[in-house]
Each structure stands twice: as C-alpha cells, then as structure tokens.
Predict the 3D structure of the following.
Amino acid sequence: MDAQFTLDQLDFQILSFLQKDGRMSFTVIAEKLNVSIGTVRTRFNKLIEEGTVNIIGRVNPDKVGFNCYAHIAVFVRPATLKEKVALKIAKLPEVSFLAMTSGDYDLEVDAMCRDNNHLVDFVNDISKIEGVNQTKTTIYFKVYKYAQPDLKLLKK
C-alpha cells in the first residue's frame, strides 16, 4: 500500500454513497457527483487497491442465526505474549472485532456465536491459548446499533 495516498473530498463522497448502498452503480454515483463514470471507476479502483474499502455483503447477525453476541475482555500474562495471543484469537471465525487496549485488560474481543453453548465453547478455546490468564465475558442482550463509521465526522 502507498503510505502517501490521501483521500480528497471526492473520495469521501464516493465512499459515503457506497456506505449507503454498496451496489450503487458508478453511473449513478457519477451523476450525483457531476463527474464522469471513468473518474468514479478510477477513484473506486484506487480505493480498493489501497485497502481503503472492501465491498462485502454485510449480514444482519440476528436474521441469520447468530443469537449470542458477546464482549470478552482478555487478560494476558506475561504481557510479552499479547501480540501472539491476539494473532491466535484473530484466526477464530467467531471474532467480529479484536483490539489491544489500555486499562484493566489487554485485549477486547467481540464474538458472534449461534447460542450460549457455542459461546461457552468459544471462551473455553480462548482460555486454552498460552498466555491467556483470565477472561471476562459480557453478553449483549440486544444490539441497538451496528454500523460503519460516519465519514461526515471527519469534516473539520
């Protein structure tokens, strides 16, 4: 990836349209932005190439059978194993979010599971990883918002 690649206003506008409808045609986007289809296509290809955007079908977890969504705080000891533990957890298919954190625990994991039994198995699998000292699980009873970041927040 090109470290010098910077997004301009047109890139952000294209991304905003794609966030609303990832299937929106280049023709429609070009018309809305008053630019050529070729400009939209070139910008889109650059955004893909740079890893700024991926076009995927985003699934609603509830509607397809993921009935247990949880947050798991992971405590790692010794601390030198944090990266190794994170890389192992990242490979697990249940993981929808994973980050190293500051504060009381070392890693934050969000997981989507079929049901509570699946979650128990998942947490047990994490607990077997060398360096995982403790986990603390919070089940999300109801998710009110599950969204991508609003690009308008980046405007100054």
User: Anything to note?
Assistant: The chain has a mean pLDDT of 92.
